[in-house]
Amino acid sequence: MYEIILAFITSFALTFVAIPSIIHIARKKNLVDEPGERRSHVVSTPSLGGIAIFAGMLFSIIMWTPFNYFGDLQYILCAFIIIFLIGVKDDLDPISPTRKFLGELLAAIILVFKANIKLTSFYGIFGIYNIPGLASIILSVFTIIVIINAFNLIDGINGLSASIGILISLILGIWFYNIERLEIAIIAFSLIGSTFAFLRYNITPAKIFMGDTGSLLLGMVCSILAILFIELHRTLPDSAYYFKAAPSFAVAILILPLFDTLRVFTLRILKGKSPFHADRTHIHHLLLDTGLSHMQATSVLIVFNILFIFLAFKLQNLGNFNLILLLLTIAILLSFGLSRLSRRKTIGQ
Fold first, then answer.
1. pTM
2. What residues have CB less than 8 Å from 106, skipping those under 6 apart?
3. SS3 content of the chain, % helix, strand, coil (to 5)
4. Structural domain boundaries in the chain
5. How far apart (Å, rounded) are the C-alpha atoms in residues 116 and 184?
6. Which residues contact 14 (CB under 8 A, 6 or more apart)?
7. CA-to-CA distance for 26 and 91, rounded, in angstroms?
8. Measured torsion, CA atoms of residues 218, 224, 229, 234, in degrees rounded to the nearest 10
9. What is the pLDDT of residues 228-286, one digit of tens each?
C-alpha cells in the first residue's frame, strides 16, 4: 500500500513544482494557445501542461514500482514515450492527422503485441465469447486509438479531461490494488497525482492547458486500465471483486469521452461533413451555451459520469448487452434534452 501512496505523493509534488516553470518558459517563448472561434478561452494560455503530467507520472512509476512487479511495464513505458513525443510535437508545431494517427498506431501495436494488453472475449455480447486472434488484435488496437482520441476531443474546457482522468484512474486503480496488480495500480495513482497537481493550475481562471501531450497520455492510460479491467475478469470468476458485466461497467466509466465522440462523429456525418471536421457541438460546448461556466459544466459532467457508474454497478445483473443498451439510451436522451435547452438559450440571446 505504501508504494501507491508514495507514487501519488511523488507524482503530485514533481508536477506541482514543474508547472510554474513551464508556464514561465511558455509565456517567454510565446508557446501559448491563442483564443479563436472554436476556442472556449478568451486569453492566451500556455498549453504544455502535459509535459509536467508525463514527467511526474513517469518518474513516479519508475521510482516506486517494485522490480519483481515490473513485468511488461517496460513496453507500457515505451508506448507512453511515443505518445508523449507525438503530443509535444503537436503542441509546439501541429502535425498532420495522418502522422499523428501513425504514431498512435505504433504505440497501440506495442501495447497489444509486447505488453499483451488486448481484448480476447466479448463476454457474450452478440452471443460472442472468445475472439479469434487476428480479430482480437484489430479490436484491441482500434479500442486503444478510439479512447486516446476521445480524451483528446473532450479536452475543451477547464478541468474536464483532468477530472475525468482522475475519476477513471481512481476507480480502476483501487480495483487493481484489490486484486493485487500493484504495478497497474501504481500507474493509475501516479497519473492521479500528476493530474491532480495539474488541476490546481487548470481550474478557472486557467493558467495552463494540458494540450495534446496531456490529453493523449490520459487517453492511453485510461485505455490500458479499461482493457486490463475487462480482460482480467476472465481469471477472476470466484473473486470478491468480480463484476458480472465488466465490459458494460468499463463503458459506464468511460461514458463521457466515448459517447461524446460517437455523438459528434454521427452528427457530422449526418450533416455531410467529415467526422474529423472541428466544430462546437461537443457536450461541454452545449453546457457552456446554456450559460454555465467552465467549472460548472465540468462539475455537471463529472456528477453524471458518477451516476452512470453507480447505475452500471447496481444493474450489472442485466447482462452486458442490455446494460450497454440502457446506458446508451439514457445518454442519448440526456444529450437530446441538452441540445434543445442549448438551442433555446442561444435563440433567446
1. 0.93
2. 82
3. 75, 0, 25
4. 2-348
5. 13
6. 52, 55, 56, 59, 60, 194
7. 11
8. 170
9. 999 998 888 778 899 989 999 999 999 999 999 999 999 898 888 878 777 888 999 99
